């Protein structure tokens, strides 16, 4: 019988195109499963390394738990992508494709959550922890420099105290020569001026004693910082370096606290407040009432000047105290997995590799979907018999012959049914 539908030239080319693609897919299917298994195993290995970095215990049970988790990840990755590679290219309706596409997205998120971040921890965990150490060193350095700056600013108050002390000493010398109250000698006004100059001299000496302590603390802090920087780049396991780094961080935090306590600004502020409030007025010792009146007026003027100088000194101390304090820096040990997440922006290539090893089969799913769509498009308009290959046609003819032979050949295995002879009746003989 002639074929009622004869293929056009375009349809014939589409059939040949579809057969060519099917041939390529047949060859690719020979190793696609193996390749998917290799990717799943590689993901499981890196997942195992990532899980190990999270476990504190190195015993047999922890190793078994890490192995079990990594095996589960490998099996899950292999099974999930096997389902997608088979089912997604085969479905045709938009609704089914959207459903499988959503499922694939959800499964990809699950794979990233249970595997990819651990893979990234295995790939860049040590580098991420070293990055955390380097960031901590910078924070400690900023705090140390800030504390030193405040301490030096407080030490600079020594010049303000010296200037006020010198002004009172100069006034006392003027009083000794009679250029202040008009009465030469070391009387009541002279003693008031010398009293305040002596107080300021003691404060100045106290501030001066702090300078070597500030310099020594800052120098020791820089030495600790140098050691901490060396620990961030030294070879060897980062866990061992983190332990020593933590010890150095504790020492440095103590030095920063010491520098903050060495600031003399609060001391200068209290001294300035007491400068005008705690004046011991001597008895006026002039020989007559006019001179005693002159002494009292001069002492009043000295007290006004003293209050002004105290206010100036107090404001200078408050300016230093108002400077922003160094930030409280505390080193917190961190695991490699947490460090990779915390500093993810610095390890984009590692994250990309960790995710790609898990989600690369998704690209194969889309390749297969596009190829199957092209095959279906090439066969569109052709009947089933037009798409049969020569081998398929021969196989179909052979099957038809076998069926026809089976129908025409009589069954030799079933014997003929036996026929029974008719029963003979014997007449009775009479005796």
Automatic annotation (TrEMBL):
<keyword id="KW-0472">Membrane</keyword>
<keyword id="KW-0812">Transmembrane</keyword>
<feature type="transmembrane region" description="Helical">
    <location>
        <begin position="26"/>
        <end position="49"/>
    </location>
</feature>
<feature type="transmembrane region" description="Helical">
    <location>
        <begin position="351"/>
        <end position="370"/>
    </location>
</feature>
<feature type="compositionally biased region" description="Basic and acidic residues">
    <location>
        <begin position="406"/>
        <end position="415"/>
    </location>
</feature>
<feature type="region of interest" description="Disordered">
    <location>
        <begin position="406"/>
        <end position="431"/>
    </location>
</feature>
<keyword id="KW-1133">Transmembrane helix</keyword>
<protein>
    <recommendedName>
        <fullName>DUF4407 domain-containing protein</fullName>
    </recommendedName>
</protein>
<feature type="transmembrane region" description="Helical">
    <location>
        <begin position="61"/>
        <end position="84"/>
    </location>
</feature>
<feature type="transmembrane region" description="Helical">
    <location>
        <begin position="96"/>
        <end position="118"/>
    </location>
</feature>
């Amino acid at each position: 019988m002639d074929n009622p539908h004869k293929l056009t030239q375009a349809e014939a080319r589409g059939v040949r195109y579809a057969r060519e693609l099917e041939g390529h897919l047949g060859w690719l299917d020979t190793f696609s499963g193996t390749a998917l298994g290799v990717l799943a195993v590689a993901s499981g290995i890196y997942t195992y390394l990532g899980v190990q970095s999270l476990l504190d215990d190195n015993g047999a049970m922890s190793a078994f738990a890490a192995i079990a988790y990594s095996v589960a990840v490998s099996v899950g990755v292999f099974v999930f992508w096997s389902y997608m590679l088979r089912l997604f290219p085969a479905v045709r309706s938009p609704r089914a494709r959207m459903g499988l596409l959503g499922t694939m997205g959800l499964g990809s998120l699950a794979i990233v959550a249970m595997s990819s971040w651990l893979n990234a921890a295995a790939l860049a965990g040590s580098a991420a922890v070293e990055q955390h150490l380097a960031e901590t060193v910078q924070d400690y350095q900023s705090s140390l420099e800030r504390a030193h700056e405040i301490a030096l600013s407080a030490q600079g108050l020594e010049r303000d105290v010296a200037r006020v002390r010198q002004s009172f000493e100069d006034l006392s010398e003027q009083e000794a020569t009679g250029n202040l109250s008009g009465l030469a000698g070391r009387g009541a006004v002279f003693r008031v001026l010398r009293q305040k100059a002596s107080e300021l001299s003691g404060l100045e000496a106290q501030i001066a004693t702090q300078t070597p302590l500030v310099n020594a603390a800052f120098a020791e802090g820089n030495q600790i910082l140098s050691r901490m920087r060396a620990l961030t780049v030294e070879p060897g396991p980062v866990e061992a370096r983190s332990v020593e780094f933590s010890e150095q961080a504790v020492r440095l935090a103590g030095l920063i606290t010491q520098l903050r306590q060495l600031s003399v600004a609060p001391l200068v502020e209290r001294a300035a407040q007491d400068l005008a409030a705690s004046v011991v007025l001597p008895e006026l010792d002039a020989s007559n009432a006019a001179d005693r009146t002159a002494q009292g007026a001069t002492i009043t003027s000295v007290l006004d000047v003293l209050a002004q100088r105290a206010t100036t000194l107090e404001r200078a101390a408050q300016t230093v105290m108002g400077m922003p304090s160094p930030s409280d820096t505390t080193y917190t040990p961190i695991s490699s997995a947490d460090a990779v997440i915390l500093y993810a922006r610095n390890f984009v290539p590692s994250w990309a590799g960790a995710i790609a090893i898990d989600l690369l089969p998704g690209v194969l799913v889309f390749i297969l979907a596009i190829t199957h769509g092209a095959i279906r498009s090439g066969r569109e308009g052709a009947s089933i018999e037009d798409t049969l290959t020569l081998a398929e046609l021969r196989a179909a003819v052979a099957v038809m012959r076998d069926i026809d032979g089976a129908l025409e050949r009589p069954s030799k295995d079933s014997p003929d049914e036996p026929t029974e002879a008719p029963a003979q009746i014997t007449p009775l003989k009479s005796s």
